From TrEMBL:
Residue ranges constituting the MACPF domain according to the UniProt record: 45-356
Identification of the protein by name: Hemopexin
Keywords from the named record: Glycoprotein, Repeat, Secreted, Signal
Taxonomic lineage from the root: Bacteria, Pseudomonadati, Myxococcota, Myxococcia, Myxococcales
Signal peptide location: none
One Pfam family it belongs to: Hemopexin
Domain of life: Bacteria
Entries under CDD domains matching the protein: HX
UniProt xrefs under InterPro entries: Heme_transport/Cell_adhesion (IPR051298), Hemopexin-like_dom (IPR000585), Hemopexin-like_dom_sf (IPR036375), Hemopexin-like_repeat (IPR018487), MACPF (IPR020864)
GO CC annotation, single: extracellular region
Start and end residues of each stretch annotated as Disordered: 1-58
Localization annotation: Secreted
Length: 555
């Protein structure tokens, strides 16, 4: 039987990816908005013939600021659109009356968000691809265009199997209504005319962060209210289930099949049920009925659908950047750039330490991080750190490392030397004179005898006698004392570096105390050199371009 877990709380935004399958069931009838009898007037202090109607579900989020950060739970900020007067409305489907602020509107026949449909199926062959599909696309948050995010998500890294597995999702989206703001220009003056510095500068980071903390990085324009269920399946590939088997089992769980295919569908459903771990996530409807959907019984699905009108909840949000509400285009641009710096991440090319500062190289740029002050300096062109290298074709670099603890074959200490790689050549650069040493550039094969690579992705120095060179999914171990590659190399990355799941590296660095860090894209892995394996819980994401936000740096 599958292991079933339950989650039902707002978490990090989730986007729907390219899904397989189509609508497989019919939703319950949508609610009809009815006028409330005249003697029941408003929810703003007026007398009524009965109890005052409660606020319409959806008002807890619509019109509020929201702070979005990739791979993290979102947080709601203060209300940005005032609510002075209320009007009552009633829904036939829910058999209840609600209050709605003047200036807000309701659509009882809502269109689906672009990334949703009634029932969808997604199957991916790896955790990385699954996580990419299920995670918020950060590029959407960095524009003036509205986009939608899920109001609930319970998937996280705990669903990841240590064994090779398929990851599948069955989601059902049943909206009853949307509540929205038709005129976004009618927001509070603190947003229309904010007191923030412009144009953008890294020096004003605190002011921007305070603004986002109070008002949000985005605001909620619209909310879909109803019910949404998501079943996430982890299916080990050793179970012999194929993607087609998983698809058939999920399709059968919706029901609606004719008698001829019912027996085959039942067999597929049972096979999936007995060969997977199923996690149920959802909002709206009865919680017990929602949890019962882990049985993959079509009747359980139908039973949950019937309970949605009794407990409608926010299931999707339509949001836009808070800068779209700002009148001054310079201040709007400053806020957008400030948000971009706090959430986007430019891949690391190389990392090395000089004194109490850590240098992070990124292509043709670099940043310095002061470990004592815990401050990231303003990004600078690589030429400011290493002048005149572009004359030798090193305007960009593949990787670099500092020769800490290393000694050249002639006995020269290399602690104050930087080794910089580009294509099949490298340069030795003197930190003190800020000049390239004589006799460089050189071919990698000349300076590092036995290294078979025509370029280098990353380098890791773990001691005076060990330098690792990485290219793609292979690596070699070089002994500087003997000036040659050790026997038995190259080897696959996976053979020596257990738990390093990257197919290639962007950068690597020895952090001391027997720990090394590996970087790929916006992820990092901490590796225990003593136990020869990655630490539990990795890889982890690196968010933003401010080094002080990367907690691992100051560990």
């Amino acid at each position: 039987m599958p292991k079933t877990t339950r989650a039902d709380h707002p978490e990090s935004p989730v986007k729907a990816g390219a899904r397989d399958g189509a609508d497989l069931a019919t939703p319950p009838s949508l609610p009809e908005v009815l006028p409330v009898p005249a003697k029941q007037e408003t929810a703003a202090g007026h007398k009524t013939s009965s109890k005052e109607p409660r606020p319409l579900p959806g008002l807890e989020v619509v019109g509020r600021g929201i702070h979005l950060r990739p791979y993290q739970p979102y947080s709601l900020a203060q209300l940005l659109f005032r609510r002075k007067e209320f009007r009552p409305i009633s829904f036939k489907e829910t058999r209840d009356s609600y209050s709605l602020p003047v200036g807000y509107e309701v659509n009882d026949s809502p269109p689906f968000p672009m990334n949703e449909s009634l029932n969808q199926v997604l199957i991916e062959e790896s955790w990385d691809r699954f996580e990419t599909q299920m995670s918020m696309d950060a590029s959407l948050t960095l524009s003036n265009t509205p986009f939608s995010v899920s109001a609930s998500s319970g998937w996280n890294n705990r669903l990841r199997s240590e064994q090779d597995a398929y990851y599948a999702v069955r989601s059902s989206f049943v909206p009853l209504w949307t509540v929205y703001i038709p005129d976004p220009s009618d927001c509070i003056e603190e947003i229309r005319e904010p007191s923030i510095p412009a144009p953008f500068s890294h020096r004003h980071r605190r002011a921007y962060d305070e603004f986002f903390g109070r008002y949000g990085s985005h605001y909620v324009r619209r909310a879909w209210v109803g019910g949404k269920s998501t079943l996430i399946f982890t299916v080990l590939k050793s179970s012999s289930l194929s993607k087609e088997d998983i698809q058939a089992g999920i399709k059968a769980s919706f029901g609606g099949q004719d008698s001829a295919s019912n027996m085959k569908g039942e067999a597929s459903r049972e096979k999936l049920k007995n060969s997977s771990q199923c996690t149920v996530i959802g909002k709206g409807g009865d919680e017990v009925s929602l949890a019962a959907m882990s049985s993959l019984d079509a009747q359980a699905y139908d039973g949950w659908l019937k309970t949605i009108p009794k407990n409608p909840q926010v299931i999707e949000l339509d949001v836009a950047g808070i800068w779209t509400l700002v009148r001054d285009p310079n201040k709007a641009a400053a806020l957008m750039e400030a948000y971009k710096e706090s959430v986007s991440f430019d891949p690391i090319t190389a990392v090395f330490e000089l004194g109490r500062e850590i240098y992070f190289l990124r292509g043709s740029w670099f940043v310095r991080y002061d470990r004592d002050k815990k401050v990231t300096q303003v990004p600078q062109p690589l030429s400011d750190l290493m002048p005149n290298l572009e004359e030798h074709g090193f305007d960009r670099i593949d990787t670099a490392f500092r020769g800490k603890d290393l000694v050249s074959p002639s006995g020269e200490k290399l602690d104050r030397k930087l080794f910089i790689f580009r294509h099949n050549r490298f340069i030795r650069f003197d930190v003190d004179t800020r000049q390239m040493d004589a006799g460089y550039p050189r071919l990698i094969s000349e300076g590092w005898p036995g290294v078979p690579f025509d370029r280098i992705d990353a380098v890791l120095v773990t001691g005076h006698d060990t330098v690792y060179f990485f290219l793609g999914n292979q690596y070699v171990r070089f002994n500087p004392l003997k000036n040659r590659v050790d026997e038995g190399y190259p080897q696959p990355l996976s053979k020596r570096w257990v738990g390093v799941t990257f197919d290639r590296l962007d950068a690597a660095m020895y952090w001391g105390s027997g720990q090394a860090y590996f970087f790929k894209g916006n992820q990092q892995i901490r590796y225990d050199l003593a136990n020869y394996r990655a630490d539990p819980g990795f890889p982890k994401y690196i968010i933003g371009n401010y080094v002080e936000d990367w907690k691992f740096v100051d560990d």
